Structure formats: C-alpha cells, structure tokens
C-alpha cells in the first residue's frame, strides 16, 4: 500500500521535472556507489571534441556533488521551481518547457567554456529560479524564516547565501544571466514596439511532447477532471 502511494505521488510529478530530478538523483547515487566517477561526467570541451565523449554535454548538468547539505539544498530548489514552472506558466506547453531546457543548456555550455566551469547543474537551477521569480513578481517569499522579500529578489538572495557559505558566485551569476536572456527574449522583447518572437519551439518538439488539443465540447466525468496543485510558501500580494 505504501509503495503504491509513493508510486502514485511520483507519477503525479510533471514529466520533465520527474525525468530531470530522477536523472540527477540516479547520477549522484551511481557516484556514491562508485559505479562511475565525477571525472567521467564533468564538462570538458577537449574530450567532447577530440574523443567524442558527447555524453558530457548532458552529464555535467546531472551531478551536484556528493550527498550532503549542498546536494539536498540544490535538489529541493531544483524540484520545487522546476515543478512550479512546469505546472504554472508552462502548463500544457511541455514542448516549450523542453525547448527552454535546451536553449538554457546550450547557452550555459557556451558560457561555461569561457568561465571554466565543469558542472553546470547549479547554474541551471538558478536559471529556473530566475525565470519563475520574474514571472511571479507579486509573490512574497520567506527565506529560512529570516528574510521576507518579493520573488524577483530570490536569485540574488541565493547568490548572497552562496557567498556566505564561501562558494563562488560565478555559478549563480551564470544562471541569472542565462535566465535573463531567456526571460527577455520570451517575455519582454516580443511586447516592445518593433519587437518580435525570436524563440520559437521547433515543430518536432511539439509533435513529440504536446498532446493534441481536446474537443472544446467534451465534458469529462468528475473522476477525469484534473485537480489543482498548491505548492510553496509564496503568497500573492492582495490575496
């Protein structure tokens, strides 16, 4: 019974969030069990181009370090904000969400080459947090019960927290920069005079990930109607 409940809860996680977080956890577990080593996963342009180790383009986004506070902290934020994005502004737009992953990953890979970063998963998490925060500007946040602020400040609060822990803020800055590029091209520039949409999801992604539109006249049975999902400590102003 408990197994069925866990399985049911797991399958209720949106598909992209479920796939990415599962891949991150399994990758970390494989490293902990010494089935693989971080040296087989990190981003190395020379090994990718000369030795054709193309898997490094993906695996460097899946490893967040050994199991510990930093790993758990990143997993919580990754799961939380990836899911809220997928169930919020990307609800019913799985192909667009996958395209955002691909665009962000490509941009980070290019930038990562110049700043000499070997694992980009944390920066990717900050990118997700940044995009969510800009699309939910009126949400009030509480950080460990110490700080109260509005959502757009969250990425900068996380960067300050990283600084207090003695970590490099290059990773956070990279995530913020890539997140802002996507946010500007997707949400800001198309609405400006003379602007337009530069980011268009390829039709092959829509064919693979988006389900056909339902008949507007179809009235589902009560048990078939999807339920909502309330998540997070944020609270909208005026609510």
User: Reading side by side through the largest sheet, how are the strands ordered?
Assistant: 2-1-3
Task: Give the count of helical stretches.
Answer: 10
Portion of residues in beta strands equals under 5%
Query: Assembly type of the shown chains?
Result: single chain
Low-confidence stretches: 218-233
Largest sheet: 3 strands, antiparallel
Radius of gyration from the CA trace? 19 Å
- By DSSP, the count of extended strands is 3
End-to-end CA span: 38 Å
User: SSE order in H/E notation?
Assistant: HHHHHHHEEHHHE
Residue share in helix: 40-55%
Shape: globular
Round the mean pLDDT to the nearest integer and report it.
85
Going by helix content, strand content and strand pairing, the class is mainly alpha
Brief characterization of the structure:
The protein has helices spanning about 1-10, 15-30, 45-50, 55-60, 70-85, 95-115, 120-135, 155-165, 170-190, 205-210; strands at about 140-145, 145-150, 235. It is mainly alpha-helical.
